[in-house]
Design a protein that fits this description.
The chain contains two helices and no strands. With about 90 residues, it is mainly α. It has two domains: about 1-50, no CATH class; about 60-94.
């Protein structure tokens, strides 16, 4: 698992740092890649726009999964509390 995470990190780092821009962002200035656009190395990487889309999609998906898990846990916890309260109320009446 650590090896896979390291490979993904290195791939993304090379893609975003070496292949995308060669100078800091300045408004109106075109961003030039370190590697020429016709270089065969570009065949190993998706288009530049995916350097932002992939992490955003993963963050949104992860947030949705965590939120769903928390809501399911909270709903189940409330159901157990309600059942205990109902049983205690029924026991008091009897």
């Amino acid at each position: 698992m650590l090896v896979a995470a390291s490979v993904v990190f290195l791939y993304y780092s090379i893609w975003t740092l070496a292949m995308l821009t060669s100078r800091p962002f300045s408004p109106g200035a075109p961003q030039q890649p370190f590697v020429d656009s016709d270089h065969p190395l570009h065949a190993f990487f998706p288009p530049r726009v995916w350097a932002i889309r992939i992490p955003v999609i993963l963050i949104l998906l992860g947030s949705a999964v965590v939120g769903s898990f928390l809501s399911v846990v909270m709903i189940r916890s409330n159901r157990k509390k309600a059942a205990k309260a109902k049983a205690a109320a029924a026991k008091k009446k009897a």
